[in-house]
């Protein structure tokens, strides 16, 4: 093999590495986190309790995914077709913060005080955006 052929092989291999898609799970998790953050923002801007709670359930469903034990299909899933849920699609290092965000969403959705829900939802949105790298 001459130098030109060797360089050609090296550049071909590098091109394949650069052009190969990222893992589907990594891409799905980020999209699901961004969608969850968007719905946390919708909850923070809600003008009534049912709307705020609905959007917090959307956050939970995006984090848990349809295979999760606490997934609530009746609440709707704005992350449909984005993956298996941000928590299961994320790497192990990201999961503790996402699970804390899930706990925050659950606690907020259980509130009956719209002002407290909106405050929690705004903090949740900021945390999710940080998780998504925004």
Helix coverage percent: 55-70%
- Evaluate the radius of gyration: 19 Å
Average pLDDT works out at 85
Distance between the termini: 48 Å
Strand residue percentage: under 5%
User: Unreliable runs, pLDDT <50, ≥5 residues?
Assistant: 4-24
The dominant shape is globular
Q: Give the count of helical stretches.
A: 6
Number of domains: 1
- Let me know the number of strands: 0
Label the structural class: mainly alpha
Major sheet size, sense and barrel closure: none
SSE series: HHHHHH
Detailed description of the structure:
With 134 residues, the chain is mainly α. It has one domain (24-131). 69% of the residues lie in helices and 0% in strands. It contains six helices and no strands. The protein has helices at residues 3-19, 24-45, 49-64, 86-89, 95-109, 114-131. The chain starts with a helix and ends with a helix. Mean pLDDT is 85; it is low at 4-24.
Summary, kept brief:
With 134 residues, this protein is an all-alpha fold.
Task: Give keywords.
134 residues, mainly alpha, 6 helices, 69% helix, 0% strand
Layout: helices, strands, pairs:
Elements: H1 3-19, H2 24-45, H3 49-64, H4 86-89, H5 95-109, H6 114-131
Helix pairs in contact: 2-3, 2-6, 3-5, 3-6, 5-6
């Amino acid at each position: 093999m001459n130098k030109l052929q060797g360089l050609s092989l090296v550049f071909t291999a590098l091109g394949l590495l650069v052009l190969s898609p990222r893992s589907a799970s990594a891409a799905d998790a980020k999209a699901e986190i961004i969608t969850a953050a968007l719905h946390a923002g919708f909850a923070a801007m809600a003008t009534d309790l049912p709307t705020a709670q609905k959007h917090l359930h959307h956050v939970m469903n995006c984090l848990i995914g349809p295979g999760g034990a606490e997934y609530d299909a009746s609440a709707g899933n704005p992350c449909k077709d984005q993956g298996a849920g941000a928590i299961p699609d994320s790497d192990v290092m990201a999961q503790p913060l996402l699970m804390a965000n899930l706990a925050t969403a659950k606690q907020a959705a259980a509130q009956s005080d719209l002002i407290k829900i909106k405050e929690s939802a705004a903090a949740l949105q900021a945390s999710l955006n940080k998780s998504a790298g925004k």
